[in-house]
Amino acid sequence: MRTADLVTSALLILLSVVVMYDALRLGIGWGDEGPLSGFFPFWLAALLAAVSAALFLQALFRRATKPFVSRERFIPVLKVLGPLAAFIVVTDPPGPWSGLGLYVAGGLYLGFYMRWVGGHGWRAVVALSLTIPFITFLIFETWFLVPMPKGPVEAWFGY
Asked: What Rg value do the Cα atoms of the chain yield, rounded?
């Protein structure tokens, strides 16, 4: 746990420094119409750096032998993280490849997650894996007119 706290707080300090540096480029002062663009990011990053430095020092002087996470607790995290990462890649993969789009990938993710993690029956898995992406498609594409990443199935239907 001590190592994880040290690494996390060090990364947050580094992130804070990057944000503060970029906020300085935007201006952190006060203009005629109020704060400049970098005012709030700079001070929020400064606050994050101060808190992270305090956590770093606290972790540095603490003697803890307790592990960051046990195997039994890490497996459920991987059960969520693995399919989620696959969902993101399948939706819109990087590079020249075309993905399945948000709706088809969402249906696959929902079905896989319901069956594997939730242990639901096939009838419920298939019904919700088809219904929820279809309703989501109607809401975003026809009512709100918000274009979402689409794949070959949506193109086949003319969207």
From this structure: 23
Q: How far does CA 69 lie from the centroid of its chain?
A: 21
Torsion of CA 153, 155, 158, 159, to 10 degrees: 100
Whether this model's pTM surpasses 0.70:
no
* DSSP-based helix, strand, coil % in the chain, nearest 5: 70, 5, 25
Candidates 126, 127, 149, 125; CA nearest to 137 is 149
Beta strands in the chain (DSSP E): 30-31, 34-35
> How does 73-94 read in b/e, with b if 16+ C-beta sit within 10 Å?
eeeeeeeeeebeeebeebbbee
CA quadruple 24, 26, 27, 28: dihedral sign: negative
Q: Tens digit of pLDDT per residue, the chain (159 long)?
A: 788 889 999 999 999 999 999 999 999 998 888 899 999 999 999 999 999 999 999 988 887 777 777 888 888 888 889 989 999 999 988 878 888 999 999 999 999 989 998 899 999 999 999 999 999 999 999 899 888 888 888 888 888
